[in-house]
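User: Okay, second chain of the day. Same drill as before: sequence in, structure tokens out.
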Amino acid sequence: MLIGPDAALDAAGAAAEEAGLPPIAVAANQGKLLHLLARIQGARRILEIGTLAGYSAIWLARALPADGTLTTLEIDPAHAAVATANLERAGLADRAEVRLGAASDTLAELIARGVEPYDFFFVDADKANIPHYVESALALARPGSVIVVDNVVREGKLADADSTDPAVVGVRRMHELIAGEKRLDATTVQTVGSRGHDGFTLIRVLEG
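Assistant: Same drill. Structure tokens below.
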């Protein structure tokens, strides 16, 4: 009732399935949440780490003003091709760019170039490297920027102190990083829905 049918998003999902991409895109209600958060933030520049088929990128790009830009980072050429086509089909090619390559390399390049800070970040990539992605986002942010990190509850496995799963360890290290970083204020919210039991971390960047 609150989202309704959407031809571009439906087509993006169908294209991902046809291309054999893993069914791990955000659920529709989380896509809508990202959209609303970016609009509430008044985001003009958005950086997404982890593109897959571009489903969340469509939600985020739609939140931008006419002069806004979304840069989304993807390591897999097949995923990037599907995402680029999906964004074009959704009429968002003028404001959304898919950058192909390892996220760590692209982030280092953006930091070295001293690009204009981003207002909003969505981190949805390999969880073992999540602490590095959050540190990089902080380097590319401004006071007031918002960072959303997905898949941080791991079906409750995050609470298992003995887990050696690289994804769980990475997410635990991310929480430790946030807790020790005075420039970050955050909370983690558990979710249960069509994607199972998981959650996201919502972070705000403070003055240094």
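The first strand starts at residue 45 and ends at 49.

User: Thanks, on to the next one.
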